[in-house]
Amino acid sequence: MEWKVKKVVQETSHSFLNFVTVTYDVTKIDGTHYDYEYFMATRHDKDHILPLTKDYSRPDGVTIPLYYVDEEGKVSILLTSQFRPAVGRRVTSIPAGLLDEGDTDILEAAKREALEEAGAVITDLEVLAPNGTTSSGLSDETNAVVLGRIVSFKEKNLEAFEDIDSRLYSLDEVKEMLKDDKYFFALNVRLMLLYLLERFK
Length: 201
Prior knowledge:
The chain has helices spanning about 50-55, 105-120, 170-180, 185-200; strands spanning about 1-10, 20-25, 35-40, 60-65, 65-70, 75-85, 90-95, 95-100, 120-135, 140-155, 165-170. By secondary structure, the protein is α+β, with helices and mostly antiparallel strands. The strands form two sheets. Strands 4, 5, 6, 7, 8, 9, 10 and 11 form an eight-stranded mixed beta sheet that branches. The protein has a three-stranded antiparallel beta sheet with strand order 1-2-3, with no helix packed on it. The radius of gyration is 20 Å and the shape is elongated.
């Protein structure tokens, strides 16, 4: 089948997230055409959604798994705890944030967000994923993943309603947290932590 965007209607107008209806002209193999309406969330206005721009190079945000190596060579992982209104509870996670409009470098964005959310000064940055969808059935949002090593801590710079606590956990503590139902992880974060546990074991 061939899919072409026919019309986009922006249903809401908010600063960070909007709801749009996208109508596709779908051509089946036998040549028949059908209109197919799809409802999606986006961080863009209706003229800059991913189905129109096809710009898969620049992510909307960056997720930043962070680790710290002490004087004895022991590795710890930084985890955050943040109240997330969409799920109505605190979620155990890792630092992440949106790229600013002028950002062209995901590494610089990762450094900024790590400092703002966790007060972490980071180095040895490594791009684990340059860009990918976060929930392609719901949204056109994309994210990069950048691994960083913490070298020191400074004061955090949280926004007024960012309710984020952060601390370092040993690899053994992270293993136990992943087994404990009282900790609620996003699926991508759980997978990243499993990767880090394997990498640093």
